[in-house]
Structure formats: C-alpha cells, structure tokens
Hints:
It is a single chain. 38% of the residues are buried. The protein is built from 16 helices and 15 strands. It is an alpha/beta fold. Helix 1 (29-42) packs across helix 10 (279-287) and helix 11 packs antiparallel against helix 16 (365-372). The mean pLDDT is 95. The protein has two domains: 2-251, Aldolase class I (TIM Barrel, Alpha-Beta Barrel); 300-372, Orthogonal Bundle (Arc Repressor Mutant, subunit A). The chain starts with a strand and ends in a 5-residue tail after the last helix. The chain is globular. Strand 10 (265-267) and strand 11 (272-275) form a beta hairpin. It binds iron/sulfur cluster. The site of iron/sulfur cluster (SF4) has 11 residues, from loops.
Amino acid sequence: MAGLYIHIPFCKKACHYCDFHFTQSVGQIDAMVDAIADELVMQSDFLGRDTVYTVYFGGGTPSLLEGPHLKKLMRIIQHEYALSSNPEITIEANPDDLDKEKLSTFFDHGVNRLSIGVQSFNDDQLKWMNRQHSSSQAMDTFYLARQMGFENISLDLIYALPSENHDNWLRDLKMITTLRPEHISSYCLTIEPQTAFGNWLKKGKIKAIDEDFAADQFEILLEIMSKYGYEQYEISNFAQPGYESQHNSAYWKDEKYLGIGPSAHSYNGKFRKANVANNAKYLKGIEEGEIPFEVITLSLEDQVNEYILTSLRTKWGCDLSLLKAKYEVDLLAEQEHYLNKLAGKGLIFEDEGFLVLTDQGKLLADKIASDLFIESD
Length: 377
Ligand code: SF4
C-alpha cells in the first residue's frame, strides 16, 4: 500500500502564517509541471511497484493547475504506477481558484476529493492572515463543488488567532457544520519564524499564542465536532464515518509514500529523502537528469519516537506489535509503570495490541508521547 504526493510550489499571495515551500512566480508553472512529469517517470521504481491507493496534489496551491497540466500528470501516473482501480485523488484548493470550469476539469481527470482552505469565515481575520478570498467566496465555492458532483470535500479552519474570541470561534464552527463537509481539518495557529507573523512577533506587533486560550478553543472544537457527528480520527482531523483522509492516514500508519516536486519528502520503508526546496535548483537538476534530493538519516530512536508521536495522535493508536517486529522495542514492558499510571488516570488504554489515548489523553498527546520516547543506550 503506497501513496503519491505531488507538490505544486506556487501561490498567488503569501499567507502571513505559512512556511510551506512556494514562490509567487506563477509564470513558471508550465516548466514546473514538465519537470514534475519527468520526475514521475524517473521515480517510478521508488515504491517497488506497490499499489498506489492515493494521489494527493498539495502545495503551494495545486488549484492553480489547469486542465492540460492535470491531464499530463494523471496520464503519467496511470502509465508508470500501479494505480489502484479506485484511488483517492485529492487536490488542495483555494476558494478563489475554483469556478465551474476548473471544478469540471478536476472532476474529468479523476479528482474525487477536494481539500479547500477556508481557514475562517470572518472577513477581517481572512484579511489579517492575508488570504486571497472572502468568507462568502468560500461558501459559494463549497456549494458549487457540491453542485458539480463532489461528494468528498474537506474544509480547513485555523483557531487560536490572536484576534480570536470564543464567540467568533463558535460562529466559524456553526458555519462549517451548516455546510456539512465530509471532512474537517482544524489546526491551532503556529507562529513560524520565517513568516510575516514571525516577523511581527519579533517586532512586538503581535503577541505569542496564549496556550490556555488555544486549549479552550480546542475543547470547544472537540465538543462541536462530536455534537455534529464528526469523529476525531487524528488530533486535528475530523470525519463523517468512512471519510477519513486515506492519504494522510497512511503517513500516520508508517506506510510508504513518494513525494514529487520541490521540497517533497518520500519514504519507501527503508529510507527517507527530501527533494531540494528551491524551484530553480529543482528545475535545473531535473533538466540535467538528476533529481536534487538529500537522504534523511534517522536513527532507530528517531524512527521509533516519530512513530509513537504520530500514531498516538490517531484513533487507531500505537501498534505495539509493529514496534516489536520492526524496531525490537517492547514499549509495554519498558514503560509499564508510566503506562499504568496513565491508564489509572483514564488517559490511555490498550486495545488489541494498540495503545490508544482517551479524549482526555489527547489533550496531552504531545507530552505523553515525549514521555514515552525511547533514548539511545
Ligand atoms: S497557506 Fe496555502 S495558499 Fe497560503 S501561502 Fe501557504 S501554501 Fe500558499
């Protein structure tokens, strides 16, 4: 089982919180799609011919892709990879890029899941984050996508913005539950150093995120999601039954994936690698027949700890037999005392060989995971 990720490194505007890899030189998109197409062919053996169950166009802004771009990439994927008969094909989209024609192009090329970056339904907050769209545009886009036949739509929201208050947050949640997308991702704002917000924080123009305020907003989120029938299958991800993101779930379950395009990461069960996060270097490398990447060497401890951290954030939990078989780590024996203590407090439980956090435990997921980390001898 494997997934394919394709990074489209362009955005029309830079959102003030974002530190993903992208440039605003959208004029290079044709050359980039050609290079990505070449890399898809060059990397076709990386997954060892495993069946590809998911294709995910992320970015940047993949909704900038036009019909001929998608046609070219999908043809190569179908030709060079063992694509399953019913793959999940997702495209991340900004509301301002989606019109009838664009949606119909996506549909015609097999895209069956849209992940729309709404972030907020409050126009002042959207402006403050430097988003390109308005709240009404996001709603219109959602209804249009429905009308065009998309039956699997995910919407993103950000919480704990410095200008946020609980009334605003409740209004955002009310709007999103009224739309009833199949999937909702909701992330706490993080202020990264290399962003406009990071710069503002340094200059004292904004305050750091208040952790208690963020925790309160998270609890409101959990309450509303549960009330409206969305299951929290990962700390920041909620789905109606049967609509979990298959692509992201595979990352959290330690499965193989191939990332194509600048800054994309890959993992084939043996090693990880990261393509260069620079469009010019990427284009030059591909033109010369060499994919510019570096191998990421993870120690055994890094691999185990990364797995503990990501798996405990999910509803499936941490697979104890996988830890034993793959890394020779008997977490239950090594952490017996601490795990018993957590279980006694109702924070964790064991279910058929998986360690799973309770709802209360999920509020402390990162702390619990780091307490369970293994150390080198
Ligand atoms: S949030 Fe999305 S649209 Fe905004 S800059 Fe980042 S990648 Fe681009």
